[in-house]
Automatic annotation (TrEMBL):
An individual GO BP term: replication fork processing
Protein name: Tonsoku-like protein
Subcellular location: Nucleus
Gene name as annotated: LOC105231282
Renumbered ranges of TPR repeats: 162-195, 313-346
Protein source organism: Bactrocera dorsalis
Keywords carried by this UniProt record: ANK repeat, Leucine-rich repeat, Nucleus, Repeat, TPR repeat
Segments of skewed composition (Basic and acidic residues): 730-749
Span list, region Disordered: 490-526, 693-751, 864-884
Mapped ANK repeat ranges: 539-571, 572-604, 610-642
Compositionally biased spans, kind Acidic residues: 497-516
Cellular component aspect of the GO annotation: nuclear replication fork
Major localisation: nucleus
Amino acid sequence: MDEKKFIKRKEKARSEGNTQQLAVCCNNLGDFYNQQGKYQNAMREYLQEAELYAKLGKKLEMAKAHRMTGEMYMLLSEFGEAKEHINLYLDVVKRLRNKVEEQRAYATLGRAHLLHGQSTTESASITMDQLRQAERAFLKSLLLIKDLSGQISKQEQLDMQARCYLNIGVVKEHLEEFQESITYIEKAIKISKSHDLFELTHLCYISMSLLYFYKMHDSTLALRYCNLALEVAKRLPNRVKKICETLITKSEILIKDGDFASAKQILTKAYKKNTPDENDRNAIEKSLRVVVKICQILDELVTTSSLDYSKRKSLYEKLGDGCCQLQNYSKAIEYYQQMLSCAEKNLDPPKNLIPIYVSLYQTYKDNKEYDQALVYLWKEYELNKDIPSEAFSTLCAIAEVCEHQRQSFWTIQDIYQKAKLQVAKNTNERERAQQERVVFVRLKRLMLKHKMQMLVDELLEEAKERGVHIQNDDDGNSDTESDDNAAVVHDENTPELGDDVCLDDLTDSDMSDLDETEKPRPHRATRGVRALTIKRNNKGETQLHQACIAGNIELVRRLLDQGHVVNVRDHAGWIPLHEASNHGFRDIVELLLDRGAAVAINDKGGISCDGITPLYDACSNGFLDVVELLLERGADAAIKTDFGETCLNGLDKWRRSAMLTDGEQAHYEEIRSRLLATLSKTGICKKSAAPLTNAEVEPATDVESESGDTTLVEEELHGGGRKRTSLNRSESKKVGKESNKKSPRDKSAGMEYKTVMAQLKHPNRANTFEEDTFDGLSCEPGSSNSIKSRRSALLDENEIDDNDWLIDDLGPERKKRRFHTPNKEIASNSKENLNTDSMSSTWCADDALEPDDAFQVLLEAATAPTKQQRKKQTSKLRLSGSSNVSNCSNLSIGRGNKTKHQSSLLENGFCRFRSESPRSADDFFDLPSTTNEPDSTTASIHLLISPSKSSPIKVQATPVMPTTISFKIKVENELLLVPVERKKLNDVNIRWLAEEAARRYYNLVGLKPILRLKTADGFAYEENDSLNVALEQNMILATVLDWQISPLGQRYEEMCHQLKKDVDSAVLFALEQTQTSNIICLADFWLLPPITEPIFKAVLHQANLRVINLKNNFIQNDGCRQLAKSLPTLRQLKTLNLQGNLITSEGVDILLSIPSGLEELEELNLSQNPLGNDSLRILDRFCSSTAAKSLQQLSLSNCNLTNLYDFDLAFFQLSAIDLSYNKLTNDSLRKLLTKLNASRLKELNLSYMQEYTSTDERNAAMIAEHITSFFESGTCEKFRRIKLCGCHLSDMNLYKISENLQKACDLDLLDVSDNNKLSGAAFLTVLSKLLHLRKLCALNCVHFVDEERLEKVQQLKQIPSFLSLTLGDKCNEYEPRLRSLWQSHWGDKAKIKTFSECLLLYVNEQDLLQHW
């Protein structure tokens, strides 16, 4: 529906007086404008809708209209108005108690704060404040979601939760808390992926990709998340648009990495998709033209002679310009440097180097590398300083870069003065007048920026004398307008790189995911020939894939003749050309290229293929003849994998693991030099390292062993597809070829059958018959230097009779029986050996035949007189169901060429039944008689030895079993024993066991966890699993998912009851307030260690706590021991205030020696504790560890510190430091000030650091100079509170400090009390220079106010809102004048108090209470 129809409906509703319908029409029209991007119009419609609903009394609809109004203001970047409307929406839904809309309100408010924080150009503190408010809003939204169960659908609730996690992750990203950001986004991915929220999953993957690339600088993971996003985009309704958006992101990553060949493939695919979004389509076309042109120039560069410097310089210039268009400034700089090198080698005259210098300095400037930009600007100036107009432009550019670099005012002014001298040399009157005006305007702007009003007045006088008119409202931008206009005209007339590229000429060979299976196949007209049906195995491999892997060229040719698709992918994304190249079959590679694979010669596989091309496959496996063929047929050696590796890297990796003959070495060096030449010409490879030799071959390692730690993206990428294995040759060509002809995944039939049968009989048992297990069994002895042939421990199918083999392996009868045995060792071994084997991945025949093994014990105990008798007995009985004892019997050792038969335990003299014997089993084994407890999952039948042929067979009737089974469970550091009655095993499940373990843990510790049970090797049980599956486990591990923790006040009462202590009502009230604020404030409670014990136990695992304030209590070292137990569980603790608690260095050691738990701590206050110098070593150890990575504020006031030695308490990263009232030595103070960061600090307190006597005049002056030098060492722009009481400052010291504090726009307090040397000059300096200062304290500075300066102060337009002064003996003279000054400036807000000779001038009472 178009706009006119919406407007017509609206007018109709207005004419009919239908207010309800009019409001609906306004909403529809607003939605229409919103979709069209006309946010101003949409905002007006939503506002009108809100007014109409307000008249109708529909508060909820009115609130929703205000929310949409706020969102439109957000899109218009008017965040103040946006938040005003959203807050109105929030207030209404709160009054209506609509939790669903309240959650949406907080989420919308969070987005407003987030966008405000992202887009603000104001101070960093405002940005951080907005981001923190966004985080709080999203967290509130997340908490509300949990209360919406039953009000909305489960799917909608999960969608809300996942979006909140994603938003919080984005906020954390902008707060530079990257690990937390990744954690939250991974939570969102987990929810959205498991509940098919595809659009949100796609958004999460894109966010992760951008985070890893731009913040973590990890292009590999960024590309992998892009690949995952592509897979999800295919399932979205607007799939084409989303796929193209993802491809744009992926191409940006590749372009930034300098992989233009891969970027060309990606952008070509995006172009062919033809996205419906016009902006995306234009962006794709623009980037693709440039990338295609760059690839063409790179190809031309490869064929250009290395001595043709003139042509190479031109090509490098085009490459640099193209990279600048793509905003890859780092790569552009490389190409411009090559351009400069070619010009120098070509012996170009110096004047011809100027354009190159210009390109370099502009690119360095765009890349924010201002130091390097200045290097080339000064080089340019040296070449054109004799040409006044050119020299002037260069000097202005130098001054501009210096401003970006934040150099001092005087340095920049000197540069402009040089520019003024060049203007005077210009003979062109018109040009000189224009340049003169430019330099005056820029100087004026510079002086105003640095608040040099007196210099501005002088400059205006000078300009007036010279006839240069500078308007008062001139913002300093007019001087650049002419330059900008000229640049625009120049850009319009100059064609951009790639404008001559015809995108319609791009072929399928430029696409990265070519798969012909989706294309229509040509109809075969041959009569009598049956059409080929393409079939796939479980890996997605077609007949052509398998023929290429096997090296069967005749089959490959026949399949292609029958019409098999050439470029078909398996499930992982490999095409047949990949397989043939990976296995080294040159003839098959050549055949595929001739039959249509040439268009995919640079194919990079699917999303789990890591960007590997056929050329990289051949290089990484050392198939040099295949590499040579692919290069001859047009393979691009410059394409990188997703790991950033080139084919040259793959070739060198292979060479490090292969021993070559002289001929092979020569071939390798030839191929390597060819690759190196291509890569060095294109600027990808800079170093020409010598080829590797046999002496550099590294010993072979087990490539199959991998770390168990995998990231989320690795699990998702490799979870569904087959794993790509590199078939590196080792030993010789012959071995390599033989290993390649047979797939490494092939298994013997015996092992396959044994594995399947074991899994069918025991589905809950870990598979012990892995491929590596059987490969580890050696059948024939051989020398250590020879290559050992390996075979399966089971007999091959050609060595045994098929029927006999099947019967022996099938084992148990249908109905299994349990028997009693007096042998304790045999009974226990059944379970223990099974656990051992299931946890082991490799074992050998020697291990299987150890004397202590159950099989060996039974074998040695066999007493049947002859082999014939045992066979006769065996013919009557069949092998019963077995555990790992029977598995060991399947081992067969090769003995010559005799016909082999797979034996069983029965053939070795064992029987299924217990035999009657004159002697009991105790006489044979000398073991006490015990009752065997059968394993619930294996149900094995215990085999006993028949000592005599004549003994009659008798079956044992009923086993004697214990009535309970006990499960050992480990929770945190506690071991629990949970007994279960045997008869109830089938009635309870793993969930019941977890809850019972949690209950027992609560009785033991006082905290109730929510548990997930796992096996000893980390495999998790499902809640609904039967307890029988855990019978085999010697130990069950319990992972704590969460803690069922009562509110803190209730927890405190429980702990008091448990410890038999009285409940303190004041403490209880304070702890109850924590529920909403997450802040524990127990300041000035005077609590002793016995009273704090239940408090510290109650805070255990209170993960939401952010602040603990225990100021002015007496917890002492004993309390520190109690608190240290809880600190590691407070994962979000930001502030820990232990001021005034009689803590010594021992207590600090206890608190800060915990291994983890304080990673989020930002503020640590240990002031007014007798720590002494011994505590510095402990603090230094803590501050240098990862536990203090977030520490920002450190307070050590009045801690009996005298010498800081060389300890570095993370001073450089701190934003607030308080070391007042410590008698530090002069040297310690000097070292401290050199370590502090004046550009980072916000709060500084150095008051009363040394005692002052009349004999210490020189030391006092040195202290003041050290402090002054510190303020001159940085920008000082972030300072908010500064206390320099008793620091012996003079007027000159305070003048220099004030000069450096002029940039501190948020300066709240400057306290210079007890600096007796300060006079009225210092008073005037502070007030005139620090215009942003809000509070000034100067008590006991008796000369701080005098007659002359007081008159000048009265003329100031801006003064602080709080002044505390000591007037001395002239109090009666100055006080009336100061009162008059204060009242005239602040009017009714002015408040004044006097105490003795002190005068307090303030505006609000809070300032008075805080600073007096």
